[in-house]
Amino acid sequence: MNIVKQSHVDGAASCPVPASPATCSAGDGRTRRVAAAVARFVEWLDRYGESSLDFQTQYAGRYGRFAKALYYRHRKAGTLAVAPLVFCEAFVPSARRLFWRPQRFPIGDAHYAMAFVRRFAATNDQRDYRRATHFLEVLLSTSGRARTGLGWGYPFDWVTIDRTIPAGTPLITTLPYVYEAFVAAFEVDRDSRWSDVMRLIAEHARLDYPDHPWRGAGATCSYSPLPGDHGGVVNASAYRAFLLTRAWRDLGDSRYLEAAQPNLEFVVGAQNPDGSWYYAVDGRRSFVDHYHTCFVLKALLKIEVLGGGTSCRAAIDAGLDYYVQHLFDPSGLPRPFARRPRLTVYRRELYDYAECINLLSLARRRRPEFESMQQRVVDDIIGRWQRPDGSFQTRQLMLGWDSVPMHRWGQAQLLRSLCGILADGDQSSDDRRRSGPGQVATLRSRTDDGVRDRSALFKDAGLSCR
């Protein structure tokens, strides 16, 4: 299939060059450095494979689940139980492989799909686009059977403060990334296979995550569709508000915008007077960290651009003020926490860098200084964090580095952010946003060999094909 590049999501730009996997010849020296770093990473990814260990790997096995659950129930006894795992995390991170096995992660696959679409926008190399659609096919093959539509979650049993969430349970914090990955591909090839999946995801997000009233018109959504999940996690509601607002714009269905508004009211209302957001409003998880703050601000910024949140501006401005003042160190690099939940065993986090670059890309038109802030972070990540094999360090520990590569925990997110820099400045997606809602729903239907047709997709998900 001969792909003709049409547009790119998130305001990314095309840098028209001959088909080349590595360079963006019209770019400046910094862009060339980013392109070279991306090329080295892609070569590493080809060698390493698409499965990896994870930050949660140590707690995914039988003992890890027991120790973590005990920690949440009985803090003193649980501290003793998790101490060996924390020791390994701090001093012997390679020991993760003793506790669990490498796996695929839908969040990682979705970010890699978006990364390769963005790289295609910069290189016009069809190999990048084929790699992106490969990850989309993987996502289709690993989707979980939700009550309505399609969902994705973690491939291991996840012990949380309230319960153990079984492997494969759909999570609202995974869903928007998968949705955005299919949107990114759709904006390139206008294949209705992708828009069909987008609708299935949107229906799952609208119908399967109960709302719980909070302070008047606001409502916090559940983290998962499981009974007894009462929500309260701020970034979860921010994710759902963004996904449904985006689906309203893409699919032209006002029910999505209506469903998004209570979650948006909750996120804005949950902001602290100093501009921060706690992880949750339950009184038990009142920490403020870098990447969760990025999650919330990214969602609000995107909602504002989409036209679905008239109440966002003040919250965004206050949140950005707090972010700049409290989540960067004196050298201008991301700090993991402004308010810690417990003792931490590392200095810096790759995930923070990835989300920082992404957030500053989205917000830089609001504040000119974000351009230089982003450049400082990018220079540091390429200069100090990229390893000789092309992968990136996962954490800077108190002593040394955690070099275990984790697709879900920063590698995929960073590639997406760096490829966004390569594709920076494209105006075509802005044109698409101005075209208004309903565009996807009116496009032609087409299927390719080897993929279920659109009626089968909807039938499997328990929906009618409209």
Structure description:
This protein has two domains: 380 residues, Glycosyltransferase (Alpha/alpha barrel), CATH 1.50.10.10; 46 residues, no CATH class. The strands form five sheets. Strands 9-10-11 form a three-stranded antiparallel sheet. Helix 4 packs antiparallel against helix 5, helix 8 packs parallel to helix 10 and helix 10 runs antiparallel to helix 11. It is built from 16 helices and eleven strands. The N terminus and C terminus are likely disordered. The chain has 466 residues and is mainly alpha-helical. Strand 10 and strand 11 form a beta hairpin.
Provide the descriptors you would attach to this structure in a database record.
single chain, 466 residues, mainly alpha, Glycosyltransferase, 2 domains, 3-stranded antiparallel sheet, two-stranded antiparallel sheet, 16 helices, 52% helix, 6% strand, globular, disordered N terminus, disordered C terminus
Query: Which class do the helix and strand fractions yield?
Result: mainly alpha
Query: Do you know the CATH architecture of the largest domain?
Result: Alpha/alpha barrel
On the 0 to 100 scale, the average pLDDT is 87
Low-pLDDT ranges: 1-27, 425-466
- Number of distinct helices: 16
Strand order of the largest sheet: 9-10-11
What percent strand?
5-15%
What is the CATH top level name of the largest domain?
Answer: Mainly Alpha
- State the shape: globular
H/E order of the elements?
HHHHHEEEEHHEEHHEHHEEHHEEHHH
**Number of domains in the coordinates?**
2
Helix amount = 40-55%
The total beta strand count reads: 11
CATH topology description of the largest domain: Glycosyltransferase
